[in-house]
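Lab notebook, bench 4. The sequencing result for the construct came back, and we need a structural model before the next group meeting so we can plan mutations. Quick request posted to the team channel:

Model the 3D structure of this chain.
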Amino acid sequence: MKYIFLILFSCGFYSCGDSPTVTYKLHNETIYQVKISGFSNRTDINNEPFYKEAEVIFIEPLLSYEVTWDTGEGLNTNTYFSEDEIDSVRVVFNDEKLLVLKCDLSDARSCHSIFQAFEASITQEDYEKAIPIENN
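Done. Here's the predicted structure in token form:
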């Protein structure tokens, strides 16, 4: 009986080990609150629209957002967002300006670092590229 308990305890302890994880950090280097929304506007194997929307990320001025995902057995494709394969991002600065970022995921090298890096920043340059949101 003692050996059975020892074997079960050892197996349970072994399976509870650390699973592989990956951490992503997103910095807000501006003096504005940013609201970041991620979307996937891809098509499925039948070329039908396959729309997904991730949760909104809020980052206060000059602070950072960090998320750690469990990669398990496979490759993690979530990046900063709860949904994988995000190819469009809306960045709203203080509810006043909007920057839309899009990326062809088949060649992400030319995309904003939010699509490709484990650590990225929203910068003053991003703010300057944003367009005013009109209040109607």
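The two ends are 75 Å apart (CA to CA).
Will bring this to the meeting.
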